[in-house]
Amino acid sequence: MSRLGIFLTVALTAFALNVPWPAMSVGNGRSAWLLHVDGAISPAMADYVVHGLTAAKSRHAELVILEINTPGGLSSAMRTIIMAILASPIPVVSFVAPSGARAASAGTYIMYASPIAAMAPATNLGAATPVQLMGGTSATPAKPKTAEERKILNDAVAYIHGLALKHGRNAIWAEQAVRDAASLTAVAALHQHVVDLMANNVPDLLAKLDGRKVSTEAGMVTLHTAGITVQDYPRGLRVDFLMALTNPTVAYILLLIGIFGLLFEGYNPGGIVPGVVGVIALLLALYALHILPVNFSGLALIVLGIILFVTETFVPAYGTLSIGGLVAFVMGSIVLMDTGVPGYGVSRGLIGGISVAAALLISVTLWLAVRSQRRPVASGAEELLQDTGHALSDFSTAGSGTVYIHSETWNARSDTPIHARRCAPRPQ
Length: 428
Fold this sequence. Notes:
Elements (H helix, E strand, L loop, with lengths): L2 H15 L13 E8 L4 H16 L4 E7 L5 H13 L4 E5 L5 E3 L1 H8 L2 E4 L4 E3 L20 H20 L4 H9 L3 E3 H6 L5 E2 L3 H8 L3 E4 L2 E4 L6 E4 L4 H9 L2 H20 L5 H19 L4 H17 L7 H16 L12 H27 L15 E2 L8 E6 L2 E6 L15
Parallel strand pairs: 1-2, 1-11, 2-3, 3-5, 4-6, 5-8
Antiparallel strand pairs: 6-7, 9-10, 12-13, 13-14
């Protein structure tokens, strides 16, 4: 096998297995692994954290630090991360950093689940109310009105309350963070025993952790972090790809590329490229939509809008179907994603740009249609109506004969007698 083939094989294997190449150099010495939980809590992020904890265990790391800066995310992904933290025999430190970062919503639950919780100055955490209770106007987070809302709220309260009791943290404030969307600064969180310590950065954090005793799944552990090596654990190609793919805006664009690619292939059979690109984009979009918090009514409205666009080309509705399709497309795009989930929503600017482009396309199509209706017929027998030609033969009463018109000889009928024009031009 050539060197290029070997390189491609290794690269594809690393991509498929999510092997982050820089982390492969980690030895069995004293090390603390640093994982970056930066952005929305998504299935890809959960996959990254779980793989990181597993790899840290296999490489005998002494400590795992989760550097957190998140607005929140999906409950399912959050619970996957929490389960991995609770099952880890290696002490896990959740560190809200750098200054200006936050651990909101799902990030607060992860902080409470960690054996050690730390924050950098000028950071905050809280606002952990389930988003299902934040989206409507009929109920406030503190006073859910329906049985379903009460069930969601009580489940979230019990969950964070149990995490708080496990690590001896402030359970009363944890409940306030869920019921009332309360938030705290780093200083206030330390004073109220929500977090264990404050640190300016990772080296400062390691210095303050030295000698601290931590309870883990494997039992009580005393940390010896003086002089320990910090190993950065990168996400890897696979996780980066999945995080980009499950970005709501990317998923929305892939959905449109897939649908219109298949339509172009249908209009021009044999083009191949639009069909291949459309199928790949549509499959990727469906995978992303399967993971994302999708409102299927919005997806149905988008499909309906595109169907109306296509129908307009076959049914002379004078723009009615196109306008209806545009309205359905815009409304479907707006409600497609559950935007109550932090970090999950399609860009309104993108929706507006595509809608304006579609409206201009519809306007141009309607203008061309009206213009074509007003233009005279330019071909066929209908073109000869109301035009003037020359009789090449005499027409008897209600008889027929031949005429010369538009450089062509035609058979014609006349209800009145017509005499041939003797000086008429003859066809060549």
